[in-house]
Model the fold of this input.
Amino acid sequence: MARVATNKLRTLYIMDELLEKSDEDNRISTGAFVEMLANNGIKADRKTLYDDIETLKTWGMDIIYTKEKPAGYYLASRKFELPELKLLVDAVQSSKFITEKKSRELIRKLESLASVNEAKQLQRHVYITNRIKTPNESIYYNVDKIQEAILSDRKISFIYFKWNIEKELVPRNEGRPFVISPWALTWDDENYYMVGFDDFSGLVKHYRVDKMQRIELTEEKRTGESEFDKFDLARFAKSTFGMYGGKVENVTFECDNSMIGAFIDRFGNDIIICKADDEHFCVGHEVAVSGQFFGWVVGLGLKVKIKGPDHVAHEFRDWLDNIRNNMK
Done:
């Protein structure tokens, strides 16, 4: 019985060594395996080592042996390749809704999915300090509570916060809890939002998860299913700017041809484009008309005009006049 246990341990030690230390540029020799096992109190010879590696290959590990110097074994593929891990690290470190502490913890876990040498490349890839990050350490638990409510079909209550002039988070609604039916979680503009139905207004609304605190599941079943079924979350994300709401209008733009990339980046490549003349095109799309939307248009400069509806164009001009007057 002890021999069977030792055999199993030997195979596990070999698997860990391959996962932790091997890659195409860092191979492990047969002698290095035997030495590692001896350091862990397990005797092994080349024959048992070959058998163990064949067992791991049969189990599904992509183990390669090369005679090129330095000769040895290495793990040729993993669940996550290094470029994929770099993408995940980028996502974690750029996410405002994850605190600096949690970002570092998550990235350390991602590093464990690579070899030691590849993990060093991920470490050099990390730039977290001085990035804008939420101070709310409870966001993981918030997401967990919201997901639990969605799966159990229950409403949640929570206190919703905002920043004041003293840079303090203070409760909205005079500290009274919001009671909302959560239907989805979405990531937009580097922040995490809960989308839910508000019985009081009869509307689907969104809330920043990092500004939600004291989340509790209620005994009430969720409401607003029919309203949420009609709610197109992807379309909503494209039409809003920074998740700021406003009256949704089908706005028509006239643009210089050089601006086509800005509109495809914002609204997707399924937008319908009409030629205005050799140098300009027209495009229409639903947008939530708000100050954030007008700011986006201003950022595009003189090569973009709002052509309609007329009342949106007038509202844009009034907004610009108010900005100009405010600067005097």
